[in-house]
Design brief:
Blueprint lengths: L2 H25 L11 H25 L28
Helix pairs in contact: 1-2
Length: 91
């Protein structure tokens, strides 16, 4: 499997995860109303998210991505400094 195929599969998985998440948001009831989805359907959705996540992790390993570090399309890490804001003591 080449990088182009992996990239296409990653795009498919990303869209599937996003679409499935949006479906869940759209059908989530408000104000304590009963959920329109059956318990078995909710479990299957959770399993889908797990499978998508597992496959995305496998693809990242194949491409040599380090999960601890963010990936930037241009390969450049942003130059930034972390600033700590300390509230002055009250006098």
């Amino acid at each position: 499997m080449n990088t182009e195929e992996l990239s296409k599969e990653q795009q498919i998985l990303r869209i599937m995860r996003k679409t499935l998440g949006n479906i869940v948001k759209d059908v989530t009831p408000l104000g304590g109303r009963p959920n329109p989805l059956k318990d078995s359907t909710i479990q299957e959705i959770k399993e889908c998210f797990t499978l998508i996540s597992d496959r995305e992790r496998e693809l990242a390993e194949q491409l040599g991505f380090d999960e601890a570090k963010p990936y930037y399309a241009d390969g450049q890490q942003p130059n930034s400094n972390v600033l700590n804001f300390v509230k002055p003591p009250k006098e």
